[in-house]
């Protein structure tokens, strides 16, 4: 690198920099020889391969311990939540009896939801189980007893709320049906001594004189024990979730009614302060008469 001007000139600094980048005398690139660079690259290559290997190994071991048929982590102590059908954006059933369009969506929603409950379909896919006892189908040791059968829940068991005898589910007469389901929990045993859990609904706050008489289907609003335990989506492919229908026979019109339904069971704990959705569901009902 030859410099004609004085040592402190800009050309000299430029020259030094160029020499740092590539020194033709020592054959150094940015101050290191090719061997040095090669060793650095090799080190990082080995290092990252090692990290990737560790990651793959950990994932592999973790996946080995996962069971396709059962969630590895599940809190068995909590009481499951409940949900209603028809369900809109909010938990609110609000309609006018004389305005067909105001409840047509609810009827469609129930029709779709209940379609797989058709008696003909249930007979094809599921068993007619003995009631009031668990339908136990355990695996024997390492041998999986899969796929597991499920019990029939016939649409006609919902009687007035089945959409068969009254295809508008009572909405056209101001006596709406609401379906209630208990969220699925694998392995849950919701009752003992042959007593099935049952649903009761009541009015919240000062609405108790507005809610009127209720009818429950199946009788007493029970989730029969034969639908439990649930073994999971993959093991029990045709599982049909049991339902309870509540029909409001004489609810007051033109007023908001806040309804709460809850599960009564001799094994599931009541929902506590910490989880106010456990074992219960609340919704608003409003029936307008014009
Ligand atoms: C159930 O029955 C209704 C009429 O009652 C029908 O529209 C629907 O397609 C049926 N669903 C199935 C799955 O068979
Ligand atoms: C469901 O309906 C079918 C056909 O009507 C009937 O054979 C079957 O016994 C019913 N199942 C239950 C559990 O009621
Ligand atoms: C599920 O239902 C189908 C008919 O829809 C039936 O062929 C099959 O055997 C059923 N599987 C089980 C495990 O019940
Ligand atoms: C409903 O409950 C009453 C009183 O607890 C009982 O006598 C009756 O047998 C029950 N009905 C059904 C169908 O479980
Ligand atoms: C229906 O409710 C009204 C009050 O909202 C009451 O006056 C009437 O007696 C009730 N009818 C029946 C059959 O319960």
Automatic annotation (TrEMBL):
Cell wall biogenesis/degradation listed as a keyword: no
GO molecular function terms attached to this record: ATPase activator activity
GO biological process: intracellular potassium ion homeostasis; intracellular sodium ion homeostasis; potassium ion import across plasma membrane; sodium ion export across plasma membrane
Compartments, as annotated in UniProt: Cell membrane; Membrane
Membrane topology note: Single-pass type II membrane protein
Keywords: Cell membrane, Disulfide bond, Glycoprotein, Ion transport, Membrane, Potassium, Potassium transport, Signal-anchor, Sodium, Sodium transport, Sodium/potassium transport, Transmembrane, Transmembrane helix, Transport
Ranges that cross the membrane: 39-66
Family: Belongs to the X(+)/potassium ATPases subunit beta family.
Stated role: This is the non-catalytic component of the active enzyme, which catalyzes the hydrolysis of ATP coupled with the exchange of Na(+) and K(+) ions across the plasma membrane.
Protein's name according to its UniProt entry: Sodium/potassium-transporting ATPase subunit beta
Naturally occurring in which organism (per UniProt): Sparus aurata (Gilthead sea bream)
Gene that encodes it: ATP1B2
